[in-house]
Amino acid sequence: MAGLSTPSRPLLLLRGGTVIDGSGAPPRRANVLLEGDTIAAILAPDAEVAGAESIELDGLAVAPGFIDSHTHDDGYLLAHPDMVPKVSQGVTTVVTGNCGVSLAPVPPGCPLPQPLDLLGPPELFRYPTFSAWMDALREAPAAVNVIPLVGHASLRVSTMNDLQRPATPEECAGMRRLLAEALDAGAFGMSTGTFYPPAQHATTQEIIDIGETMRGRGGMIYAVHLRDESDRIDEAIEEALEIGRSLAARVVFSHHKLAGERNHGRSAQTLARIEEAGAMQPVCLDCHPYPATSTMLRLDRVRLARRTLIAWSKGDPSAQGRDFAELQHEWGLDDDAMLQRLAPAGAIYFLMDERDVERILAHPRTMVGSDGLPFDPHPHPRQWGTFTRVLSRLVRDKGLLTLEAAVHKMTGLAAANYGLRDRGLLQPGLRADLVVFDPQRVTDLATFDNPVQASRGIEGVWVNGQRVWDGQRATGLRPGRVLERH
Ligand SMILES: [Zn+2]
């Protein structure tokens, strides 16, 4: 403690909290001392520190800040840097560039086929190189930290003039150069979304050819929105594993799910396969705690879902927030005519089984990722409620996970998977990303009908030692950093 008596940076003592340290260890009473942007010490519950400002926590939980392992916040970070949907649920770090779509590198004026438009309005796409976007983030930081990934569909869009075919060897070389530039600039890896039109004609070999530059770098991420999450999911999982092995990269199975009633229950097999593969190569998963998903409006999804809600529609804005089947009845249109009237549009699809969702979330390799679409006018509630819903519904109400196991998924597990050595745990010497919450009160308030709602029970959030959420609102501080791989 001698070094703490002459502090060069401000000291903050969080007193009398219940520490959930992110490792999965049981909660314990302790005081947490921050010095500047660093966790200086974990002290006995009665310890005092001279010269420290102190905050009385009175038994509230204090945990490492949550890591949102799957986001589409690339542009939102710049447009809405207070990041209220995220800090209000305890999130201090977001992983961007998922599902094959990243804001960069995409030159200004480039055509933006769906689903690139899920990242925000066209004027946000103005970064021809990845480092240009990262520089913009560093110059105007957001309230949260960023783990950036590069999207394969974005590479395709900025390189190819015809997306309806596999890339030529020259085009692959061009994309490989863009990817190398991004990785040199600090991207953690690449994501793909071959489910989506701009990438659906990409072959396995195309992805391996482009990703080759990841192989020698070690510990890179390959995040995959599978080619198929319904009837042909087994083949899609094998494809992802093969790409991961070829690139010597960690496979992150994004928003793992089984879509469509005839596939419900199959998560027992898919998880067993992923677990088996995990003995041979690094693999992990992310998911959110809702039985509905959301993306662009597609008839194949509508037909798989038991219910579809329109999140937004440029073709007919009056459809926003409405039920697809109800509208169809009202308008007397067939499926194709509906699509024509509504497109381009986004939708929320109720197509998963609650038991699959819970089985996947409870799996020890699964992290928590919101997959929210931040610019949707009527978004899926996951953008605002994913983390608090896990804590309230799955931990407190259902007892599916212990509090420390849930926090581990949101913190230590994610930090380990993304190669962060200085975050994800409440330990001396690590960066001071913290959340203080009330385990008895914490609740998501965002619903499918009323999705833009801050959660209850998140009492304080610190990013790099600075408080960004005071329990009611964002403080306006923006201490977020673009994180670096270790
Ligand atoms: Zn996705």
Describe the structure.
Helices cover 29% and strands 21% of the residues. Helix 4 (152-159) crosses helix 5 (169-185), helix 5 packs parallel to helix 6 (204-215) and helix 13 packs antiparallel against helix 14. With 486 residues, it is of the alpha/beta class. It binds zinc ion (ZN). Zinc ion (ZN) is lined by residues 99, 193, 225, 254-255. It comes from Variovorax gossypii.
Helix/strand-derived class? alpha/beta
- Given the structure, what is the number of helices? 15
CATH architecture of the largest domain: Alpha-Beta Barrel
Distinct compounds present: zinc ion
Strand content: 15-25%
Brief synopsis:
This protein is α/β, with parallel strands linked by helices and 486 residues long. The chain contains 15 helices and 20 strands.
What keyword list fits this structure?
486 residues; Dna Ligase, domain 1; Urease, subunit C, domain 1; eight-stranded mixed β-sheet; alpha/beta; TIM Barrel; globular; binds zinc ion
What is the topological layout?
Layout: E1 11-19, E2 28-35, E3 38-43, E4 53-56, E5 61-64, E6 66-68, H1 76-79, H2 84-87, E7 91-96, H3 130-139, E8 145-148, E9 150-151, H4 152-159, H5 169-185, E10 189-193, H6 204-215, E11 221-225, H7 233-247, E12 250-253, H8 267-278, E13 283-287, E14 292-296, H9 299-304, E15 307-313, H10 324-331, H11 335-342, E16 345-350, H12 354-362, E17 366-368, H13 382-397, H14 403-410, H15 412-417, E18 434-437, E19 458-463, E20 466-469
Parallel strand pairs: 1-4, 1-5, 6-7, 7-8, 9-10, 10-11, 11-12, 12-13, 13-17
Antiparallel strand pairs: 1-2, 2-3, 5-18, 14-16, 15-16, 18-19, 19-20
Helix pairs in contact: 4-5, 5-6, 6-7, 13-14
Bound molecules: zinc ion (ZN).
